[in-house]
Amino acid sequence: MNKFDKNAIRVTSNALDEAISLLTDNEQLILEHTSIEYQQLMLTIEMMDDIAGVLDTTKKEEAIDD
After folding, report:
1. Separation CA 10–CA 40 (nearest Å)
2. Single pTM value for the model
């Protein structure tokens, strides 16, 4: 994997982590002021967390390979 790919993975992983943090920190506001339901919000957060986990695993594997 080239340097650009590694950087893209790192940036995407960091952005997902930040988005998850914002969603969880503002959960009540989101539920009160949007039409999203609790289960939808939790599923969204779970899916984002799963993707971030895959990216983190990829980062670690690539660091070992270097």
Report:
1. 27
2. 0.82
